[in-house]
């Protein structure tokens, strides 16, 4: 039985402007005890004059399908179970990174339970540039290394692509990062294409979920680490807070309800027990997050 807590959809505004779009293939291992469990996701880095956005193409396509279905039904709060999954539903990376030029203010946009956060990155990568050069695909590139996000990284940058940017939170080299990998090679991002586009699907609006539209909560790294550690200790804390905030109806029943994939209501205590059990199981299998510093516990 799949618990229904909320629907986290990324919806985007379309703007007509000149965008340089770089496509990365991201190969990663989330469970360090299972080296054979390699996952792959296509990521996009959209660069324009005011900044950049890095997000999952696969998740964007999936959310576009779901948003279209919700619009067709005329109900933005339709339970997930009413939207039938299909082979076009792909992607697992729901977080996104935005950078603001010219000072490269960097933000991670992500969620905990039903709360959405805009996390300001307070650290930055400090690079050591090496003389070693290599061809990455069709790109002539040079090596650089850094210790960042709790890992040792090797980057290959291309000065023929005059952007001091790169995938995820990485930037600051004299050319676009065309390949990035950690020392253990469990997180590898490789540039596989680029093109100029007129419409940038990059600006996130309010997400649709069980509690209605909600703005992001602005925090810094240290504040989010504390929130994450609290969430690990008690995965249902935010849910209980929402239940209290919503209160009861005239008959004394909670205005907050849990549903399974079919839309059937569940006993709240049972649903929260199942939610915590599933969270603990997933936590064991996601011990190798890209950002080790942010998700330590």
UniProtKB/TrEMBL annotation:
InterPro entries: GLPGLI (IPR005901). This is GLPGLI family protein. It comes from Chryseobacterium muglaense.
């Amino acid at each position: 039985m799949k618990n229904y807590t909320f629907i986290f959809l990324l919806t985007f505004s379309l703007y007509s402007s000149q965008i340089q779009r770089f496509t990365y293939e991201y190969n990663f291992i989330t469970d360090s005890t299972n080296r054979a469990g390699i996952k792959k996701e296509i990521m996009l880095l959209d660069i324009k004059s005011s900044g950049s956005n890095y997000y999952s193409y696969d998740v964007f396509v999936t959310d576009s399908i779901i948003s279209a279905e919700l619009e067709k039904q005329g109900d933005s709060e339709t339970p997930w179970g009413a939207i039938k999954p299909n082979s076009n539903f792909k992607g697992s990376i729901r977080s996104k990174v935005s950078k603001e030029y010219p000072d490269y203010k960097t933000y991670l946009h992500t969620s905990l339970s039903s709360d959405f956060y805009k996390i300001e990155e307070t650290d930055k990568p400090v690079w050591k540039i090496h003389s070693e050069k290599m061809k990455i695909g069709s790109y002539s590139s040079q090596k650089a290394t850094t210790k960042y996000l709790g890992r040792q990284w090797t980057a290959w940058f291309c000065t023929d692509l005059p952007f001091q940017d790169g995938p995820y939170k990485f930037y600051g080299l004299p050319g676009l990062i065309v390949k990035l990998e950690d020392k253990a090679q469990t997180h590898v991002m490789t540039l596989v294409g680029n093109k100029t586009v007129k419409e940038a699907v990059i600006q996130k609006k309010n997400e649709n979920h069980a509690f209605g539209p909600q703005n992001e909560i602005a925090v810094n790294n240290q504040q989010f680490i504390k929130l994450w550690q609290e969430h690990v200790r008690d995965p249902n804390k935010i849910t209980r807070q929402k239940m209290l905030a919503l209160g009861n109806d005239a008959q004394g029943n909670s205005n907050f309800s849990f549903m399974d994939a079919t839309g059937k209501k569940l006993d709240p205590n049972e649903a929260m027990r199942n939610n915590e059990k599933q969270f603990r199981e997933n936590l064991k299998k996601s011990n190798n997050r890209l950002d080790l510093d942010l998700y330590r516990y």
